[in-house]
């Protein structure tokens, strides 16, 4: 257990933004599993792969609940919407971010949503979206040739368009597309209220009862506005796919279209599918962008590795028939392969493992993890 003070617990201000360094130092002093309390919330830090796998994978059914984030899960989800008239058994508290797969507790409802997303994005079903990936990748490469300095914007736009097309079968018309801007604002909201310590109400939950008009209650007004935005994000693009299906008899190719084709589509299932579709975009737009940024950083810091990988890729494609590589599958043309790739997959894998959490390879000791603690790894 880390050193703490009465009520305050263990302040982490000095480690803000780089807590993993502090956690690593704690592991040397206190062991692989560290408990601490900070401003009224209990945390358990898992400093080894074995302990994280034991609790979060092998025992996921009892350790998969989410932190009790008052701002994100309650204040951004208490606005009764018209949707409830179509699904009478859904309570007023079942709107807003408490529906999000990322924030909802592990319940049969959440398990259903996760399974729906995992099925649609499984290795078996993903190849149907290869055409989208090839198209957007080619457009991004053209922008890189014209303006390499803005590569971060090009990557971000490429991924936003790709994931939006996968989730809803819709390609934004421009960077100022209404739906794209709406989702961007929603993601900005999430980054604000999901960050621990940004709102006092997460430490003192009774403040949620303060009326929105009360002086100093800007957090209540922010929560109300954020709830409106997230519910609009879940409603508008989903309804667009639904309207297309009603008008044309088909909803095209997308995760949402597959959801709408499922049998026994009840209002409650449709509500869960709305949030499942939103999760596809929210989970894919930022994480994949970060992975590509990391790859670019690794290549810039290791030009010799970059040159070696490029030479291998050029030889693999064939100098006389040089073209961009594509997927080897029914939806993409086969590449001109002259031999197995050795270094390119290793480069990709190394970028994915950039700055991984350290582990000592020890067994999980017999410790009691209190119910309700938040886990960090």
Structure commentary:
This protein is mainly alpha-helical and 377 residues long. It has helices at 19-30, 49-58, 60-63, 70-75, 83-86, 108-120, 130-146, 151-168, 178-193, 218-248, 255-260, 267-301, 303-317, 343-352, and strands at residues 33-38, 41-46, 374-376. Mean pLDDT is 77; it is low at 78-95, 329-339 and 357-364. It is globular. It starts with 18 loop residues before the first helix and ends with a strand. It folds into three domains: 1-47 and 357-377, no CATH class; 68-294, Orthogonal Bundle (Cytochrome p450), CATH 1.10.630.10; 302-356, no CATH class. It is built from 14 helices and three strands. A three-stranded mixed sheet has the order 1-2-3. Keywords: Heme, Iron, Membrane, Metal-binding, Monooxygenase, Oxidoreductase, Transmembrane, Transmembrane helix.
What is this structure, in a nutshell?
The chain has 377 residues and is mainly alpha-helical.
Unreliable spans are 78-95, 329-339, 357-364
Total domain units: 3
Largest beta sheet: strand ordering: 1-2-3
Task: Give the CATH H-level superfamily of the largest domain.
Answer: Cytochrome P450
Secondary structure elements and their pairing?
Blueprint: H1 19-30, E1 33-38, E2 41-46, H2 49-58, H3 60-63, H4 70-75, H5 83-86, H6 108-120, H7 130-146, H8 151-168, H9 178-193, H10 218-248, H11 255-260, H12 267-301, H13 303-317, H14 343-352, E3 374-376
Parallel strand pairs: 2-3
Antiparallel strand pairs: 1-2
Helix pairs in contact: 6-12, 7-8, 8-12, 9-10, 10-12, 12-14
